Amino acid sequence: MQILNCNGFDEAENTNYLRIIRSNFYSGIKELIQIAEGLEKELSEDNQDNARVFKEMNNLDDPITEEIIEQAKAIWEDDAIKEVWELKDSLPGITIINFDYFIENIDRLAQDDCVAINDDIVRCRQRTTGLSEIEFPYGKNYFHIFDVGGQKPERRKWEVIASTHKPTALLYFTSLTDYDVPLLTDGDDVTRMDESMEVWEEILNSEELENATMILFLNKSDLFEDKIEKTALRKTFSDYKGGSDMKKAVEYIKQKFLDKADTSRHVAEQIHTHTTCAIDTSVMEVVFKSVTEEIFKQRLALGGVGVV
């Protein structure tokens, strides 16, 4: 939103994002090594010492030296790490899903005078904790957007925002690729998508959000299209019969979420859905324009004014 509507980031924000990106680089290589060991995939003898450097590293803000870059690239090319990366979309331990991008660009990102570009920033991972907000004009309207983390400890803050600010719309992002990724906290039988559907159902039944326009984003469509070719959706949903057909798979998951409206304060026909790739800012700009129109129409409808 800030890239599209607020002229990007100032110098201080850019510096902070560059710090996060570099931390993502260190976190990414460390978790790949850790997962390889957990899966008993042994790195080559030449990479044992390289791996030890990262395993013993505690400060993720350490400078990224030429030596560090050389060691990281050697590990990235290791057969064991390549095997882990092939499984990344189904492993709960992979959090830096854009690590391939970061290591491909690390020579630039490690430079002292580097200025992070938009492509870097949209790929960095920063867990949302607490509450962040942004305000901006868009056309003839003015938006005030609150971003609240989806983790369980953060959810009570949703109620505070809903009761205090009476939001006109709720934008809910869920990852299409999470259909087979187990929750680390609840065992292998519960997936991240199961949890996402549970949270979505809670939102649909919220009294404070009864009149809010509900907009569901089925995100990471680019990764999902590749994943269903390798990991069958039917592996998780036995009643799915669409094979690796992208449109059928997306439609199936969309319907699973819309079905949650059957016993809620909202009706499925009034829930707006979009299939997105959030790192593609050009697509997101088109989507946001559509979302604005949807909110506007529903606001008028609630006021008794019909819009064709």
Brief summary of the model shown:
This protein is α/β, with parallel strands linked by helices and 308 residues long. The chain has 13 helices and 7 strands.
Describe the 3D structure.
- By secondary structure, this protein is α/β, with parallel strands linked by helices.
- The chain has two domains: 2-121, GI Alpha 1, domain 2-like (Orthogonal Bundle), CATH 1.10.400; 131-302, Rossmann fold (3-Layer(aba) Sandwich), CATH 3.40.50.
- 47% of the residues lie in helices and 13% in strands.
- It has helices spanning 2-5, 11-38, 45-55, 66-76, 79-86, 99-104, 106-109, 118-121, 156-165, 192-204, 221-230, 246-258, 281-302, and strands spanning 131-138, 141-148, 169-175, 182-183, 187-191, 213-219, 272-275.
- The protein has a three-stranded parallel beta sheet with strand order 3-6-7, sandwiched between helices. Strands 1-2 form a two-stranded antiparallel ribbon. The chain has a two-stranded antiparallel ribbon with strand order 4-5.
- It is globular, with a radius of gyration of 21 Å.
- Residues 1-6 have low confidence and may be disordered.
